[in-house]
Amino acid sequence: MDNFSHDVLIIGGGGAGLRAAIAVAEINPKLNVAVISKVYPMRSHTVSAEGGAAAVIKPDDSLDHHAYDTISGGDWLCDQDAVEAFVNEAPKEMLQLEHWGCPWSRQDDGTIAVRPFGGMKIERTWFASDKTGFHMLHTLYQTSLKYDPIQRYDEWFVTKLIVDDGRCQGAVAIELATGQVQAIAAKSVVICTGGCGKVFPFTTNANIKTGDGMALAYRAGVPLKDMEFIQYHPTGLPFTGILITEATRAEGGYMLNKDGYRYLQDYDLGTPQTEPVLRSMELGPRDRLSQAFVKEMEKGNTLEGLYGQFVHLDIRHLGEKKINAKLPFVRELCLKYENIDPVNEMIPVRPVVHYMMGGIHTDINGATPLPGLYAAGETACVSINGANRLGSNSLTELLVFGARVGSVAAEFASNQSDYTFDMAYESITEENHIKNQFFKEKKNQERIADIRKEMHKTMEEGCGIYRTENSLLASQNILTDLKERFSHVAIDDHSRTFNTELVAALELSNLLDLAESIVQSALSRKESRGSHQRTDYEKRDDENYLAHSLAYQEKDNKPRIEYLPVTITKWPPGERVYGR
Ligand SMILES: Cc1cc2nc3c(=O)[nH]c(=O)nc-3n(C[C@H](O)[C@H](O)[C@H](O)COP(=O)(O)OP(=O)(O)OC[C@H]3O[C@@H](n4cnc5c(N)ncnc54)[C@H](O)[C@@H]3O)c2cc1C
Fold this sequence. Notes:
Blueprint: E1 4-11, H1 15-27, E2 33-37, E3 53-54, H2 63-73, H3 80-99, E4 114-115, E5 125-126, H4 132-145, E6 150-154, E7 156-164, E8 167-175, E9 180-191, H5 212-219, E10 224-225, E11 230-236, H6 247-250, E12 254-256, H7 286-298, E13 303-305, E14 308-314, H8 319-326, H9 328-337, E15 347-356, E16 359-361, E17 373-375, E18 380-381, H10 393-414, H11 422-437, H12 448-463, E19 466-467, H13 469-486, H14 500-524, E20 533-534, H15 542-545, E21 547-553, E22 559-565
Parallel strand pairs: 1-2, 1-9, 2-6, 9-17, 16-18, 19-20
Antiparallel strand pairs: 3-5, 4-5, 7-8, 8-9, 10-16, 10-21, 11-15, 12-14, 13-14, 14-15, 21-22
Helix pairs in contact: 1-4, 1-10, 2-3, 3-10, 5-14, 8-9, 12-13, 12-14, 13-14
Bound molecules: flavin-adenine dinucleotide.
């Protein structure tokens, strides 16, 4: 075994991971920082973000407006101290990114262009055409190359955290090119591994979004916070789940049912739909729009396609010139994946899982309860997203909390002594053992795809847009059974180099743990709030549930739920409405 050792180890090379690495390198150039990623960093999911990133920039906007929109959009489950830090630091981070080379789109007079996004009082979403994530990630990646102390492990898959002497001291990973299991010691470890949309069948998330980092932390004893809150995006393409960005509606697109009727006018979206309000009903919050789809489906007002029910998103009236200027990527996606041209045809869409509000429990700086372990980005729950994230807050969150976490992880690492590696040797033996289990022939052999398919089905049916006690209990039972069946999984590919079947098995084991934590958290929360809608408990219940759920993994591997009060600074819980 080689002895790999660093001051700070960052797991994940997406927006949050790269921003954190740059922060470490800037704060203390003497520290040696490593970024480990299961894919080449530019292939991280951040690259696919289209719509934009929110930060106050216009004179008629204010930090308080941004904070209030975020908090009310999150149905009062956001920690308000974290939201205040977020909105304060957001404009500085966005300008910093411009100075590093991010080509923000501009107005004719040269000032930053912003577009309205769902649930916001006022336009504050910066964008770079409709490839915002691509440009942001590229900027961060290029900037990270300037710093010599940043080393990279590209295409290494982390399987376990090393916890020794009561603190996190590194990770064990498989080098995918060779199949070798290695320990990488570190004085502090930052998890930036993104979300876990792949727990569900229809999702905008890339295949790599399997919540590995959440599972790593959960198994190391760190609780997962607010896992029941799952954001559906109302406009994904049926089957592939590919996202048709909210920018499409921000630019004036209509949602139409099978009769060509703008059905959202029949629903309470919390947004005033009369003048002088800037936005249309199509820019209501994502959870309410997704819920309206289910209601339309129940009324028989949706269309039936090869991959289930759908409605239409219509942008034909915007005209070819505007579509090409503002939404070129949307046109490209429709042509490539649906064989339709949105200039002349309507786009079929359905709600698809998009984002995890929940994640690894951290404080306002990204520190978890386990000393030496930090988290930022979609994998973390700080929490600024509460029960429903506002579109375009997430990309900015990567910058603000990536920078914050880098700074505290650097400080922690500066005060630790070197590592002895005893525990690392043990971890490697253990991980090799786990890995080899998949290569053995088993009685009643099970296949990855079968278990994954059943997990998807039960999560969609039992724990989707609407939930009930019975549907959740049914999912809980099926998941217990699936976990038992998972112990019989064996794989056909026994090669050492780029064994994607082995990676799929390890990812599925993470997804099953996370699915259980989601279902258990949803069962325990007997109220409806934001994206968590229980038809058996239809009202928000601030008396009992103005609190974050914390899922701990017990010795029998089952989740146990505790609650933590929400931090309120100056916005007492109110009705969730939008508009001035
Ligand atoms: C299609 C789409 C469009 C979106 N559009 C917007 C938008 O317009 N505005 C907005 O604010 N938000 C948007 N979002 C949400 C936002 O893009 C994501 O929440 C954010 O980019 C996540 O960034 P991250 O750095 O946390 O993780 P990611 O970018 O997902 O990166 C995760 C990293 O972790 C690594 N990793 C994971 N597991 C392991 C492992 N086991 N071992 C080693 N490495 C590992 C991966 O290789 C990767 O480098 C969108 C999301 C999607 C899916």
